[in-house]
Model the fold of this input.
Amino acid sequence: MSNSVVATGVAEPVVVAASAAAPAGLRSELRGSTLHLELVGDWRIAAVAALERQLDALPLAGIMEVMVHTTGATALDLSGAWLLHRLELRLRAAAIGLRWADGLPEPVQRVAATLGHDGDPEAMAAAARVAAPLPMAAFGREVVAWMLELRRGLEFIGRTQERFNAALLQPRLWRPISIARHVYDTGITAIPIVSLIAFLISVIIAYMGAQQLLKFGADVFVVDLVTVGVLREMGVLLTAIIVAGRSGSAFAAEIGAMRLNEEVDALQAIGVNPIDVLVLPRAVGLVIAMPLLTVIADAVGLAGGALLCSFLLDMPLVQYLQRMDEAIAPTTFWVGIMKAPVFALLIAASGVYRGMQVRGSSRELGRLTTVAVVQSIFLVILADAVFAVLFMELDI
Done:
């Protein structure tokens, strides 16, 4: 289009030379009763205000048809597509025809499919077919989103590790009062619920084991089942799940609320690194509290097994303790304790990371708190499976 005019939204059009480097806008040329429009530059959200003025300023008097050329546009997002859809509605109201010289762009198809059905059931069904992405495209988007999320998570872990290393070299960065408070919140206050769950689960394990082993006259092995099961797996795993639901959600909710109230931004504004204040004390406090809770869960679980063996199998406490001592290998207790700090780090990382992601609304706060709990429980179970395979290979 040699004699091109850029519609600028002012009374007089401005003549410019066609160039790929031209800013976002329109080149227009009138050929008889047909107005040819060529999209120029990036039709993205940053240029919406200027593009809207240009479209509103188009002279449509005496025009019978508008031909739109899209090859000159270097980019077209949904914001630009919305403007083109508005132009289409405007032309339709003025009884002016519209043709797309290069085919209807996909973003415009999506906007038209979503907004242009006017309640017609058939049109709505067609809109759903147009707007719905292809299965492979949807799968690709999910993979890309997962990779980006993994990258952001690794970046957060890297920043946290950097601040932890700095704190090792500069002890003044530690906040012992904050760490002690989190040890109390995540550890001391969790003792009742952890003890209750450990007691009930050990009683259930002992009861189910006794029901089966009594058939073979091997009821003494109930002690082995309870002892090994509680010390190696159930004590630390149940404790971690309880802590994930209790403390992991609290971490995400507390930090998320601080983000909504712009308290995290205030910390950054006064030169305080939020990781030093919000992340490290919670992670360190939970790493300290988790092994202690595991020891308590182990002790209560073994006591629950002893109680059930006494009532159900008439096994004296002395016999229970002797058999327990025979069943425990040198590594049985430490296998469970070794898992506790790892589980604590996974729970703390999930909680604080999701809390830091909160943006915009309380609904997002609730969603990410739920995600933090589900993710931390999943990571704990996954890590426990990895430990099981590792210990089996090491014959521990």
